[in-house]
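Predict the 3D structure for this chain.
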Amino acid sequence: MKNRTIKDYGLIMLKGIGMGAADVVPGVSGGTIAFISGIYEELVDSIKSINLLSLKLFFTFRWKEFWRSINGNFLLSLALGIGISVFSLAKVITGLLTDYPILVWAFFFGLVLASTWIVVQDVTQWNLKIIVSFIAGAAVAFYITIATPAETTNAYWFIFLCGVIAICAMILPGISGSFILVLLGKYFFIMDAVKSLKISVLLIFLCGAIIGITTFSHILSYALHRFRNVTIAVLSGFMLGSLNKVWPWKKVVESYTDRHGVEKALVETNILPDQFLWQAIALALLGFVIVYCLEKLSKGQRTRQS
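Done. Predicted structure below.
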């Protein structure tokens, strides 16, 4: 566990708030925010450390050693930020997506585009295998963005499964856990549970998420440490492919009416810009600049710590 000040943990919590805000939006990944803010590998390794060995420390009441072994201060600060963001911004962001969809998507388009550009620079050596990995990652993410949402059950076992699958996507840069929930037919169901605090649904979903992330983090950590360039190429490809989902101008192909009588889009297709062009360009540039500045700040912080 790194030696950090209260200010450092406050900054980590702010990064968590950014991750939570991104995870609320279908099409934007909290993993992207973790990557550009310089905490991605530490996050994956910290989650990976929650294993049988660390759990043995917990259940034998060696809680101080357990907390140190899982990088507890880091995970707690990040989790607090994500929690604050999800519960405070869920209603705001879903409302903005309903009232100002082009402007919101434009901002996130710039954010994801900048993230792709920054992450791809982390590949230290390019060859045919790396290029194919990048293209494969982009193709998979693109396919996910055009897949049609399904009609699914509200049974607890399926909510648990949604938690397992969505959290794995949320930790991957470029693949949105929220959009995976859309494809599984459970995005608005889970968002409604968050806004109305349906504890039983949230607990079942959270249990699935915990099982999913602790299992998947081992695979991801192994890939990052053993096949770093290939893994980074795939992840940056995911980001590039996901741009299809965050394209600001869309036409509704299929919609549904929620329990409040409000019509919401279920399936959309991208169209050429037809309104708010200059405002959208300005917001996309703002998103790009914010990511660029975050990356520079994070790089400076990593340099000071090393």
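The longest strand covers residues 250-257.
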